[in-house]
Amino acid sequence: MVCGPDVSTHTIAFNTSFCHLRDTSAEADSKLSTLIHEVTHFDDTFGSFDSIYYLRESRKAVGTERSKVKTNADSLAGYVVWGEVFYAS
Ligand SMILES: [Zn+2]
Fold first, then answer.
1. How many CB atoms are located within 10 Å of the residue 52 CB?
2. Residue 60 Cα, ligand 1 centroid: separation in angstroms?
3. Which domain does 38 fall in, by range?
4. CA of 50 relative to ligand 1 center, distance in Å
5. Model confidence over 13-49: pLDDT tens digits?
6. CA-to-CA distance for 74 and 62, rounded, in angstroms?
7. How many Å lie between the centroid of ligand 1 and the Cα of residue 88?
8. Ligand 1 centre and the CA of 54: distance in Å?
9. Which pLDDT belongs to residue 36?
10. Which of 11, 42, 81, 82 has the least C-beta neighbours within 10 A?
């Protein structure tokens, strides 16, 4: 969780369930995708919204809810993580 306007400290608070997530994945939520998700919320990065949660759900919405995915935090995180995991392997 973040406070989007807090661009002076960029503080990010994670629930303890974060510690049990996989490190990376191109298919499902991970520590990396969660971190990127949160960073996109800050006003000075992207100012994203939580219109659709979870990477899988945001991928499914590409064909049906284009107006939401353009500003959706998990859609942005999925775009970045897919490339990172794909090219790292
Ligand atoms: Zn969020």
1. 20
2. 18
3. 16-88
4. 5
5. 999 999 999 998 877 889 999 999 999 999 999 999 9
6. 12
7. 25
8. 10
9. 95
10. 11
On whether residue 64 sits in a domain, the answer given is yes
Is residue 36 domain-resident? yes
Sign of the torsion angle spanned by Cα atoms 33, 36, 37, 38:
positive
Alpha carbon of 33 to ligand 1 centroid (Å): 11
- List pLDDT tens digits, range 37-88: 999 999 999 999 999 998 888 888 888 988 899 999 999 998 888 765 555 5
Q: Does 48 map to a domain?
A: yes
In the chain the first and final C-alpha atoms are separated, in Å, by 30
Distance from residue 89's CA to the centre of ligand 1 (Å): 27
The tokens describing 51, both together, are 């219109």
Domains identified in the chain, total number: 1
